Amino acid sequence: MATWRALRRPKHARLWFDAFIVLVTTVFLAVAWPTLHITHQVPVAAQPFIAGFAALPFLLIRVNPALGWAVSAGSALLIALAIPHQPNSDLPFQVVHILCLFALTFAVAVRAPIQIVLVAWISTSLLMATTMAQLDDSFAQAGLGWPIAITGLIVFGLLVRWLTLSQLALLEQSEETELERARRAILEEKARIARDLHDVVAHHMSMVVVQAQTAPYRIDGLSADARAEFEAIGTGARAALNEIRGLLGVLRSDGQLPEHAPQPTAAEVPGLLDGAQRAGMQLTSVIEGPLDAIPESTGLALYRIVQESLANASRHAPGAAVQVRITSAENLTLTVVNDPATHPATSRSPHDTPGSGITGMQSRAQAAGGHLTAAPRPDGGFEVRAELPLTPAFVTHTAAPLPEFNI
């Protein structure tokens, strides 16, 4: 039973087809040889060779149908011209030869190049029309139908060919779709892992940095060694946070390394504000102080906080006026205030949503060495306020800038 199941596998289909071809060829030869003397005047010694030309080309129907057709058609023409048929026989060659030639012509239409199909169609039609027309009146009249029959056979073979090719193309497309679906699932899982790490690890690491930085101010009587220890803890935590953010960039990227993805800077914030105004937002902005000298990490945090604040205002307070103020003095101060919505929002307010928007802004501010508050206003609006340092809060890697997060 195990051997039988193994033979039924798809990889053995070619073996079964070859066995079928050999069987059919054997049947053709077994019929053509003993009956050859009935249709043609052939010496007994030559009968197996003439019958072989009628049946054996069928063996090539899978490996090389064009060659098999050429041998069968050529031998049919030679037999019709060189070997006389019996007085009581009207066929120029045997019925087995006709069946083999038709089967090979069909295989040529299915598998051979179109140029060879055209040659086989014209040659076979001429062969059948001319050889059959040399017979008596009944076959002469029927000889006009042979080219039509050959044409129908060729057309049917081409239809099978195109149907098979379309099925193969559909199968290939389905496989590509499955691969793309699997790839998308992997990317979605990577994005989910990145979000989880962002919400859990990065936030708490930022809290460690804040606690280590503020410990000397919250605890009285610390020695110089204790202050140095807290400073070392903060430095190590900031470095670990930076590495984690770089790892998240790898998880979130789609075949692109984080260092190859350009990161926005503080100098691009005015362009961000102009884009929001062009999009129809009632936005007024005030920028005091230069933005070009802001450190890279602080500038990236500033850009992302402004971007997320404007997005929240657009989603949760549609039609409301928005005021943005950026002041660069001893520290960088950002304030984004939006008025109450002029018409109902399509989703909950940002302070009621337990997602990663405000949490992400707070994490960015803390990672840059600052802090951020976000709360509703008494008039129904919302205010985001951030204080960011103008000196680098941690050492950035020039080869791997801070990756982008979807906050």
From TrEMBL:
UniProt keyword annotations, A-Z: ATP-binding, Kinase, Membrane, Nucleotide-binding, Phosphoprotein, Transferase, Transmembrane, Transmembrane helix, Two-component regulatory system
Family matches, as Gene3D superfamilies: 1.20.5.1930, Histidine kinase-like ATPase, C-terminal domain (3.30.565.10)
Disordered: annotated span: 340-380
Classification via Pfam families: HATPase_c, HisKA_3
Enzyme class: transferase
Reactions that this protein is recorded to catalyse: ATP + protein L-histidine = ADP + protein N-phospho-L-histidine
Signal transduction histidine kinase subgroup 3 dimerisation and phosphoacceptor domain: residues covered: 189-254
Organism superkingdom: Bacteria
Listed EC numbers: 2.7.13.3
Residue stretches spanning the membrane: 15-36, 42-60, 67-85, 145-164
Domain Histidine kinase/HSP90-like ATPase: 301-391
GO molecular function, one term: protein dimerization activity
Name of protein: histidine kinase
Organism lineage: Bacteria, Bacillati, Actinomycetota, Actinomycetes, Mycobacteriales
